[in-house]
Amino acid sequence: MMANNGPRISVIGIGKLGSPMVAVFASKGYHVIGLDINKDFVELLQKGIAPVYEPRLQELITQYKKNIEATTDYYKAISLTDITMVIVPTPSDSDTEFFSNDYVLNTMKAIGQVIKSCNKYHQVVVTSTVMPGSTGGIIRDVLEASSGRKIGCLDSEIGLAYSPEFIALGQVIHDMLNPDFVLIGESDKRIGDALQHLYSKRSDKQLVLFRRMNFVNAELTKIAINTYVTTKITYANMLSELCENIPDADADTVNVAIGSDSRIGNKYLKGALAYGGPCFPRDNRAFAALAKSLSCNALLAEATDQLNNYQAERLVNICKKIAVICTVDKIQPSKTKVGLLGLSYEPSSPVTECSPACNLANKLVLDFDVTAFDPLAMSAAARICDKRVTFANSVDELVCGDLDILLITTAASCWKNIYFNQTRKKLLYIIDCWKLLNKEEIEQNNRYVRIVLLGNGNSIKGLNDVGASVRKLTVRNNEFQNGHAQRRVLVAGGAGFIGSHLARRRKQGQS
Ligand SMILES: NC(=O)c1ccc[n+]([C@@H]2O[C@H](COP(=O)([O-])OP(=O)(O)OC[C@H]3O[C@@H](n4cnc5c(N)ncnc54)[C@H](O)[C@@H]3O)[C@@H](O)[C@H]2O)c1
Questions:
Q1: What is the 179 CA–ligand 1 centroid distance (Å)?
Q2: pLDDT at 484
Q3: Atom of ligand 1 nearest to the CA of 129
Q4: Which residues are noted in the entry as substrate-binding (predicted)?
């Protein structure tokens, strides 16, 4: 498709979000200039190579290369386009938890200087996540000062908008093409109308819902949505732990029913891992920090953050329960071997920023031998994981090794097809955090595989019962070895198969 007659677009910052945006606009026939201070990214895009990994990104760049340019030159990017999207980092300040505007302001200065030298109306859209008050405050001030123009709708002014994207890495292109709604904070009707038209054309949906408002309401909406979603995820995790401690309770059953209530809804209501990634944790903390800075009560957002951090501990404790059982299989005392399948924060993404799987690996390594595999995120994970975490070269290498416990930590559907080695001679416990596997079928076909269900009272009770039996057994065995007991061992309770397995192992050990 050749470039259409619509506005020419520049995208400042061609990283994880900016590159897909360039590709998506190009795919809809717009001429797009991507700009970055990272020369490598620019050179790659100039050659038609995606600067970052994201599903479908390379395909779109290859197909619509004719509509894409890349540069490090602000003058070129701004003077040759009508509208500029700014998608540069806004890292969280570790002291205040507020997002820093430093990169955005540098960009505004550079854009403003070009606009000053060009005699044309230009529109600037902030896509980066910013703290409420930023767009109408410091961002407006810097853009006005550097351009010598006012923000407004006249040809002699600059249109300014705040329009963040609601996307998940690993499905950025899909999410940009299929938005639930588009949020626009606008300086005036002219830029709001222009964006509404542009995003309608960008979407694959026939009808796109728009929410147009002033800057501060849009800024609040962005972090409020993420804070609400993190609360919902954490609620599901809290319920999941509760169910684990009640016989016959099952969090999935309860969640599906709860989610059927139209006031609640099923999305993000699943007991699994903690939330992570570059947005959820920091948006939630920024929301809490903002509330506190205004002397408002931030208890809910703070509790969500604390409970989210606790999820790794909860999983480590389940692994410890299993480790007790695994001692039966050990001739010599050795660390229980734990494998992690999935290290990125989302499937189909190489991004490990605030990844719950990496965080879990770093906690597990204190008590266990930890090996991990991820198809995309291994090198990024190696940079943030404890040096004691080792990495497998493939799923098969990980799963067919002599693991005691396998944790499925990303909801990647490819894990459903894992092949389990039929020749195993010791039990493999799988903690299927996302309930991807068919428990009945796999356990039937693999005598030595047991799937532990998070949020399931009977599953965890089974571990507790067998663990208690093993503890008793160990005490009796020690007594026996000290000559205080008869050579008779009772394996009481526990899940049938596991109980008989224990009994067999003890018999082997004693004969
Ligand atoms: N990644 C996400 O999932 C996500 C989701 C929603 C919102 N956001 C927000 O989008 C913004 C960008 O996030 P990202 O993940 O794409 O970041 P990123 O780090 O992947 O990409 C940002 C790019 O901006 C470039 N850059 C920095 N300063 C620049 C400048 N002065 N001029 C030109 N380019 C410059 C960097 O070199 C980098 O390539 C952030 O505010 C983030 O909070 C990100």
A1: 20
A2: 54
A3: 41
A4: 222, 276
Does residue 45 line the site of ligand 1, with CB under 6 A? no
Question: Ligand 1 center to residue 178 CA distance, Å?
Answer: 21
pLDDT at 503 over 70: no
Q: Could you tell me the distance, in angstroms and rounded to a whole number, from the CA of residue 280 to the centre of ligand 1?
A: 15
pLDDT in tens, 85-120: 999 999 999 999 999 999 999 999 999 999 999 988
Output the domain CATH number for residue 320.
Answer: 3.40.50.720
Integer CA distances (angstroms), 454 to 82, 195, 254, in order:
52, 44, 13
Domain's final residue, options 186, 213, 240 = 213
Task: Tell me: do 200 and 315 sit in the same domain.
Answer: no
Answer whether 225 contacts ligand 1 (Cβ < 6 A). no
16 lines ligand 1 (CB under 6 A): yes
Structure tokens at 504: 């067999």
Q: Which atom of ligand 1 is nearest to the CA of 351?
A: 1
Q: Which helix (H) or strand (E) holds 131?
A: none
Cα 472 to ligand 1 centre (Å): 56
Question: At which residue do the structure tokens 């938005």 appear?
Answer: 179
Residue type, 272: A
**Domain range for 72:** 9-213
pLDDT value at 333 more than 80: no
Ligand 1 probe mutation, 12, 17, 93, most atoms within 8 A of CB = 17
Which atom of ligand 1 is found nearest the CA of 51? 39
Nearest CA to ligand 1 atom 43: 129
Q: Please, which pLDDT band fits residue 328 given cuts at 50, 70 and 90?
A: confident
Which residues does the annotation mark as catalytic? Answer: 279
pLDDT digits (tens, 9 = 90+) for 75-86: 999 999 999 999
Residue 353: how many other CB atoms lie within 10 Å: 18
Binding-site residues from annotation for substrate = 222, 276
Nearest-CA residue for atom 25 of ligand 1: 13
Q: Which own/partner pairs from 102-109 qualify as long-range (CB within 8 Å, at least 24 positions apart)?
A: 103/13, 103/128, 104/128, 104/130, 104/134, 104/139, 105/138, 105/139, 105/142, 107/12, 107/13, 108/139, 108/142, 108/143, 108/146, 109/142, 109/146
> Residues 326-338: what's their mean pLDDT?
80
Statement: residue 386 has pLDDT above 80: yes
Using one digit for the tens of pLDDT, what is the confidence trace for 432-486? 999 999 999 999 988 889 999 999 999 988 888 888 887 777 666 666 566 554 4
Q: pTM to 2 decimals? A: 0.90
The verdict on residue 186 lying in a domain is yes
297 lines ligand 1 (CB under 6 A): no
Q: Based on the fold, state whether residues 70 and 188 are members of the same structural domain.
A: yes
C-alpha–C-alpha distance, residues 101 and 118, integer Å: 25
Q: How many domains does the chain have?
A: 2
In a domain, 301, yes or no: no
Phi-psi map region of 30: left, alpha, beta (phi>0 left; psi -120 to 50 alpha): beta
Mean pLDDT value of segment 281-301: 97
